[in-house]
Write a structure and sequence with these properties.
about 90 residues
Length: about 90
């Protein structure tokens, strides 16, 4: 079973969160699954499911690497929550 991490980034300027969400997802490594959970003025929250269930610190490191890309200028990592194991974030009981 894969782990899903809730990740939040925030802007230090007035960059549009929807654009940042799309860019961050596009810049993630291959095999990472992502779902947008929330965009608010100044923040983006995503559910990320990387392969091989890395630690929260490893996920944070990958996000930090993505955020140094010039397309992500003005955005910083705000939070990486502990992983949820099993069902992906946002999936219903179905």
């Amino acid at each position: 079973m894969s782990a899903t991490y809730r990740v939040r980034i925030r802007t230090v300027n007035s960059a549009p969160p929807e654009t940042a969400a799309v860019r961050l997802i596009a810049l993630l490594p291959d095999q990472w699954a992502a779902a947008l959970l929330c965009c608010t003025e100044g923040t983006v929250t995503l559910a990320l499911a990387p392969p091989n269930s890395p630690s929260s610190a490893e996920v944070a490191s990958v996000i930090d690497e993505v955020l140094v890309n010039s397309a992500m200028r003005g955005w910083i990592r705000d939070e990486v929550a502990s992983p949820r194991i099993g069902r992906s974030e946002g999936q219903g009981e179905g």
